[in-house]
Amino acid sequence: MSSIVSVQNLRKSYAGGFEALKGCNLEIEEGEILALLGPNGAGKTTLISTICGITVPTSGIITVGGHDTQTDFRAARNLIGLVPQEINLEPFETVMNTVRFSRGLFGKPRDDAYLEKVLNQLSLGDKKDNKIMTLSGGMKRRVLIAKALSHEPRVLFLDEPTAGVDVELRKDMWEVVAGLKASGVTIILTTHYIEEAEAIADRVGVINKGEILLVQEKSDLMAQMGQKQLQIDLTEPTEDIPAALNSYALSRSDDGLKLTYSYDTKGDRTGITTLLNDLQRAGLQMADIQTKQNSLEDIFVGLVREEK
Predict the structure, then answer these.
(1) Which range of residues forms the domain containing residue 167?
(2) Which pTM value belongs to this model?
(3) Are 85 and 163 in contact (CB under 8 A)?
(4) Distance (Å, whole) CA 278 – CA 280
(5) Which own/partner contact pairs does 275-278 have at CB distance under 8 Å and 24+ positions apart?
(6) Is 142 found in the same domain as 102?
(7) Which of 174, 202, 224 finishes a domain?
(8) Beta bridge pairs of residue 10
(9) 307 pLDDT exceeds 90?
(10) Number of independent structural domains in the chain
(11) Same domain, 168 and 64
(12) What's the CA gap between 268 and 265, in Å, rounded?
């Protein structure tokens, strides 16, 4: 699969010396959904804004569909649709006129049939003649996506697309994104919702303090970096972990009734069988055991913590 967006050694510095992006490298494959995770101030919006030409880079090279965003801006920008965080729409205009105007800004000829197809895809077909002011917050976000798709881009950037949207509408938005991918659109989204990345992304990128820490297949990331935890419920509380079990680095709950053992899912041996035997030798009686797989959130928090 070829890259449709290429970012090489991208840097962005502001007056006063603050460096928002520090040599970012990123290859976005055509037809994928890439979720970009990071805490507030990590550089997510700056990265997207720079790729889209809203922010001028200090140095580095960005190409979209083979077009350099600095030397061939119009050709590159025509391939990009951007859905910003803020809802900024003309309240007294209709939905159709709003997306029709956006299409015209890119010099595209009028094509109401295409725009109606986009609106139908976003469940806005029956709202096309409604004024923006009559729509719910979730519908307005769909209008933003329709505007971004109005000029038939190949790449769609979604900056916090479900911020402030309730859980039910958020899941509806995930279905919309999956439908867009099925139609051949490459999608890059920034999000604070870890479950969003787990639900819809093909690859996950983590950015912090202006640096991209990793970009990896979601499944590979979970397999390579995820750990499992074995929770052991005891029949009687223990005040201390016996010295004979020190090599397992067990953690003890405050009430002394639970012990937790972490192990690498990719290791040749988990050590569980030996641990259970040693627990019995140490005189600890087990009431129950259960395992838990680390979530993407656990992995993300661990990565960001390491960078502090």
Answers:
(1) 1-79+154-224
(2) 0.76
(3) yes
(4) 5
(5) 275/230, 275/245, 275/248, 278/244, 278/245, 278/248
(6) yes
(7) 224
(8) 24
(9) no
(10) 3
(11) yes
(12) 9
For the segment 258-266, the average pLDDT, to the nearest whole number, is: 80
Within 13 Å and on the Cβ side, how many CA atoms surround 178?
A: 11
Distance CA 98, CA 91 (A): 10
User: Residue 220 is encoded by which pair of tokens?
Assistant: 């590979």
Given the DSSP bridges, would you call strands 59-64 and 3-13 parallel, antiparallel or unpaired? Answer: antiparallel
Contact between residue 88 and residue 101 where contact means Cβ atoms under 8 Å apart: no
Provide the pLDDT for residue 29.
94
Residue 279: its H or E element: helix 272-281
CATH number at residue 53: 3.40.50.300
Tokens describing residue 219: 């499944």
What pLDDT sits at residue 197?
80
Q: Are residues 148 and 168 in the same domain?
A: no
Amino acid at position 89, single letter: L
pLDDT at 137 over 90: no
Q: Are residues 126 and 213 in the same domain?
A: no
Taking the C-alpha atoms of residue 238 and residue 193, their distance in angstroms, rounded to an integer, is 38
- Residue at a domain's end among 207, 224, 241: 224
The type of residue at 266 is K
Strand order in 67-68's β-sheet? 19-29, 3-13, 59-64, 67-68
Strand 33-37 vs strand 203-208: parallel, antiparallel, or unpaired? parallel
Condensed to tens digits (0 to 9), the pLDDT of residues 33-71 reads 999 988 888 899 999 999 999 999 999 999 999 999 999
CATH number at residue 279: 3.30.70
- % of residues, the chain, pLDDT over 70: 89
Contact 198, 27 (CB under 8 A): no
14 within some domain: yes
Of residues 12, 39, 96, 102, the one with CA closest to residue 304: 39
At residue 66, what are phi and psi to the nearest 5 degrees? 85, -5
* Residue-by-residue DSSP string for 39-81: -TTSSHHHHHHHHTTSS--SEEEEEETTEETTTSHHHHHHTEE
146 and 130 within one domain: yes
